[in-house]
Amino acid sequence: MSETALPPCPQCGSAYAYEDGGQLVCPECSHEWSPNEASAESDSIEVRDAVGNLLADGDSVTVVKDLKVKGASNALKVGTRIKGVRLIDGADGHNIDCKIDGFGAMRLKSEFVKKA
Length: 116
Description:
Helix content is 6%, strand content 30%. The chain is mostly beta strands. The longest helix is centred in the first third of the chain and has 7 residues, at 35-41.
């Protein structure tokens, strides 16, 4: 495979994957996978926001409802913008992994956000 044709890491989305023998390796998260797995795993997660828009890794979203956060003294307010979300196949419907200023890393349900 040529360097430009390599797919991004299915684990973390890094574009710096490289080929090592018959495997592909991500230098950022050390995930290893076969090229055949990459095509099967990509685009396998379809996540829609509160209004039905299709979300993708790296999108920016806005919170549509005040959300209580366990362990935090205040709630995540309506209109909070979250940049660079990562879509996951999470338990309990928490299918968005993100970092929020003032709250840190957390997982959200897509039904409480809309594409920005």
